Amino acid sequence: MKKIEVHTTRNYSIFKTLGGNRDVNHLHLSRLKDSMGKNNLITIIMVNENMEIIDGQHRFTISKELNLTINYIIVDGYGLNEVQVLNANMKNWTSNDYINGYCDLGYKDYNVFRNFMNEYGFSHQVSLMLLGGELLNGSAKISPTTKFKEGLFKVVDIDKSKSMADKILMIEPYYKGYSRRSFIIAIIGMFKNEDFDFSEFISKLKQQPTTLQDCTNVTQYKVLIEEIYNYRRREKINLRF
Question: Which class for 123: exposed (0-12), middle (13-18), buried (19 or more C-beta within 10 A)?
Answer without folding.
Answer: middle
